C-alpha cells in the first residue's frame, strides 16, 4: 500500500532544503540521497528564501539551535509557505531549555507546518504539557508503553488535534496522525535509539516523501516512517549476520545501505500498520 510513495519519491527526486543541526547534518544529506531525494543544506539568512523557493520541501531542525539561526528558520519557512512547499519541523530537545521550547513553539504557531516529526517528550513540551525533556531523547516516562495501542493512538490523535498539524511521533512504536486518522507503525529496532541521528534522518526523509506526494500527506508520512522502521530492522539482521555483535558504528552504515536499497515492493511487503479512526 505504501510502496507507491517511495516509488514516487525515487521518480521525482525532489530537492529538500534542510536547515538542520551540525551533529547529524551529513547523515541527513546521505539519508535523503539514499531514498531518492536531493539534499541542500543552507542556513545563511541571506540565501534561505532563494533556496527554499527552489525546493520541493523544507526541513527545519532545531538540534543545535543558535539565536542567529532564527532568521534562517523564518526566512525559509515563510518563503516555503508562501509557495505551498511543505515544511517539516523537528523540535529537537524542546523542553530541555527555554530557547528550544520557545523557538519550536514560535515556528509551530507562525508557520502552517505540513508535519512535526519528533518524540513524545518533545511534542508534549511544544504543546506546553508534560515535564521537561532531559535532552534530545524521549523521557523514560514517555517511553513507558503501559496503555494499549488503541489508547496510545487516541492520545497521539488528540495531540495532533491540539497541534492542528500532522504529527509523526516515534519511539518503540511510531504514530502518524492528522487528528482524524492515526497510523500505529511497528518496526525498527532498539539499537536505532543508540545511534544519534535516526530521528533527524527520519525527519528529513519525511520532508522528501511529503514533497513527492503532497496530496496524500498522511500516507506519505506513514510511508517515510515505515521505510525507516523496516530499514532499521533489516540493518539489525544484517549486522548480526555480518559481525555477530551489536556495534553501533557498523549499524549506522548498514542502516544507510538499507535505505539506499529499499524498493517500493519491499516496503509494501514489510509494513506493520494498524489504522485507528477518531472515535469521539
Ligand atoms: N525502542 C525502539 N524500537 C524500535 N525502533 C525504535 C526504538 N526507538 C527508536 N526507534 C526508531 O528510531 C527512529 C528514531 O526515533 P526516535 O529515537 O524516537 O527519534 P528521536 O531520535 O528524534 O528521539 C524511528 O524510526 C523509531 O521508530
Ligand atoms: C545529540 C544531539 N544534540 C543536539 S542535536 C543532536 C542530534 C539528535 O538527533 P536525533 O534526534 O536524531 O537522535
Ligand atoms: Mg530527535
Automatic annotation (TrEMBL):
GO biological process, one term: thiamine diphosphate biosynthetic process
Pathway: Cofactor biosynthesis; thiamine diphosphate biosynthesis; 4-methyl-5-(2-phosphoethyl)-thiazole from 5-(2-hydroxyethyl)-4-methylthiazole: step 1/1
Enzyme class: transferase
CDD domains in the record: THZ_kinase
TM region(s), chain numbering: none
Cofactor(s), names only, from the UniProt record: Mg(2+)
Molecular-function GO terms, alphabetical: ATP binding; hydroxyethylthiazole kinase activity; magnesium ion binding
Its EC number(s): 2.7.1.50
Reaction catalyzed: 5-(2-hydroxyethyl)-4-methylthiazole + ATP = 4-methyl-5-(2-phosphooxyethyl)-thiazole + ADP + H(+)
Family matches, as InterPro entries: Hyethyz_kinase (IPR000417), Ribokinase-like (IPR029056)
Binding site for substrate: 41, 197
Sites where the protein binds ATP: 117, 170
Keywords tagged on the record: ATP-binding, Kinase, Magnesium, Metal-binding, Nucleotide-binding, Thiamine biosynthesis, Transferase
Superkingdom of the organism of origin: Bacteria
Chain's role: Catalyzes the phosphorylation of the hydroxyl group of 4-methyl-5-beta-hydroxyethylthiazole (THZ).
Family stated for the protein in its record: Belongs to the Thz kinase family.
Protein name according to UniProt: Hydroxyethylthiazole kinase
Species the sequence originates in: Bittarella massiliensis (ex Durand et al. 2017)
Organism placement in taxonomy: Bacteria, Bacillati, Bacillota, Clostridia, Eubacteriales
Gene name of this polypeptide: thiM
Amino acid at each position: 500500500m505504501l510502496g507507491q510513495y517511495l516509488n514516487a519519491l525515487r521518480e521525482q527526486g525532489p530537492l529538500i532544503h534542510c536547515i538542520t543541526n551540525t551533529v547529524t547534518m551529513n547523515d541527513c544529506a546521505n539519508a535523503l540521497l539514499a531514498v531518492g531525494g536531493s539534499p541542500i543544506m543552507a542556513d545563511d539568512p541571506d540565501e534561505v528564501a532563494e533556496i527554499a523557493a527552489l525546493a520541493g520541501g523544507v526541513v527545519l531542525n532545531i538540534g543545535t539551535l543558535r539565536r542567529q539561526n532564527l532568521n534562517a528558520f523564518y526566512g525559509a519557512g515563510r518563503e516555503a509557505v508562501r509557495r505551498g512547499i511543505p515544511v517539516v519541523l523537528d523540535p529537537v530537545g524542546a523542553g530541555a531549555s527555554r530557547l528550544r521550547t520557545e523557538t519550536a513553539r514560535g515556528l509551530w504557531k507562525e508557520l502552517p507546518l505540513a508535519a512535526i516529526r519528533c518524540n513524545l517528550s518533545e511534542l508534549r513540551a511544544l504543546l506546553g504539557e508534560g515535564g521537561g525533556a532531559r535532552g534530545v531523547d524521549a523521557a523514560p516516562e514517555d517511553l513507558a508503553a503501559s496503555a494499549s495501542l488503541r489508547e496510545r493512538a487516541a492520545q497521539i490523535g488528540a495531540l495532533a488535534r491540539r497541534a492542528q498539524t500532522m504529527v509523526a511521533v516515534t519511539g518503540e512504536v511510531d504514530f502518524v496522525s492528522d487528528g482524524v486518522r492515526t497510523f500505529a507503525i511497528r518496526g525498527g529496532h532498539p539499537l536505532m535509539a543508540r545511534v544519534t541521528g535516526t530521528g533527524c534522518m527520519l525527519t528529513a526523509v519525511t520532508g522528501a516523501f511529503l514533497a513527492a506526494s503532497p496530496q496524500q500527506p498522511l500516507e506519505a508520512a506513514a510511508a517515510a516512517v515505515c521505510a525507516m522502521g523496516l530499514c532499521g530492522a533489516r540493518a539489525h539482521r544484517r549486522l548480526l549476520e555480518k559481525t555477530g555483535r551489536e556495534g553501533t558504528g557498523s549499524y549506522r552504515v548498514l542502516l544507510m545501505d538499507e535505505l539506499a536499497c529499499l524498493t517500493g515492493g519491499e516496503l509494501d511487503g514489510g509494513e506493520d500498520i494498524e489504522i485507528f479512526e477518531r472515535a469521539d
